[in-house]
Amino acid sequence: MKKFLKVLLLVMVLAFLYFGFTTYPKLDLISGFSAKSVASGHFMDHRSLDLIQKTDNDIHLLNLATNTINDAGKFATSAVYGLKERKAIYRDGLGALLINDDYDISKPYLLPKRTKLVNNLPFPYGNNEPKDTAFANVDYAKLKKAIDDSFDKDGGKAKRTRAVVVLYKDKLIGEKYDTGFNKDSKILGWSMTKSITSSAFGVLAKQGKIDIYKPAPIKEWQNDERKNITVNDLLHMNSGLEWEENYSTICDATQMLFQSEDMGKVQMDKPAKYKPNTHWYYSSGTTNLLSRILRSQFKTQQEYLDFWYSAVIDKIGMNSMIVEQDMSGTFVGSSYGWATPRDWSKFGLLYLRKGNWNGEQILDESWVKYTATPTNTSEGKYGAQFWLNAGGKFPDVPRDMFYCSGYQGQMVAIIPSLDMVIVRMGVREEEPGFDFNGFLKGIISSVKK
After folding, report:
1. Burial, 400: exposed, middle or buried (Cβ in 10 Å; 0-12, 13-18, 19+)?
2. What global pTM score does this model have?
3. Phi-psi region at 14: left, alpha or beta (left = phi > 0; alpha = psi -120 to 50)
4. What does the pLDDT read at residue 14?
5. Strands, E, within 324-443: which ranges?
6. How far is residue 279 CA from its own chain's centroid?
């Protein structure tokens, strides 16, 4: 018996040491991710804590967190086994903000000035309900089956699609939502927000207020090799700056999103690892640095806040969208854009129409072409904060498709050759989880050329 107890004690000690070595360092990130997810989902999309825990936070390790919501105080807290408690506060008009212990929640803050698009037009160019339209070349039964097949049946969790919206020739031809979601549900686009950031630079370029081919306006880089990095290099994820993006572990990206007060500064402080335009590497830090650079183009914080919405988001009626900030007041342009699936489809339509929105040229055609042109070292898979199918990632989809893509399988697919935009929102990545090639193929095949 004594021998058994000694062995049991040894096992318990080893288990404790293993937990301490492998998991404890991650607790701050786990509770931070969880608190932010709960606060955003609950206060922006009115999801219950139970729904969030079962459908948003049921991720390995994240499900270790214990979460609470304070509706009166408008905040959420999360901790793991009572350790490393983190707090996320909600501010109407700004979304949720994950804060550190020393963050002063009493300090005043600015809100972006929003202008709601009111033109009495049907969706997608307005916010009224879409008109019924029947195209003779669309097999609607086949289209419905392709959309239905992308959703789970009988409570399954294999595909985990939340929403699908299909636009064809400026008309809504297909739409479906999972249980608990509808056309008014705001859904996090994750890295699809990067494409929103790119569009803001596109408007600045159209206005002649920035030259993306000049060195990035960062004074901290002027005395070393980073002085040669251009905004173009950053937009192309081709700056050569050191970075690690691996969401399965503690890395630059996870520390930035769940610990940093000034997210853009994290990438800014990294040394050069390669010469610019010689090594493509995906970096959320780069996009947040771009957001920080964008902030420096305006004299005041209010102008910076307003520009994102007045230049693109509200201009095309994406009135549901909220881009959340970091603790320094900079938009988290890499990851934190929330909008309804219909509004995400409007953004795709803007690019499908080469930057023109119902007669107004918001982005130059040349910018959209630039966006969809492969960067030098990405093997045809990346443009300027947009992903591309030029390299044939999706073999049964036209090579001219370019798309916004986000964590857990968010997608706004833009297919110029088919005059089509396809939106899929969910919580399941690509194979072996969700078959994007088959999903897109099914929808495309329902439309006869």
Report:
1. middle
2. 0.94
3. alpha
4. 45
5. 337-339, 356-357, 360-361, 387-388, 402-406, 410-415, 420-426
6. 23
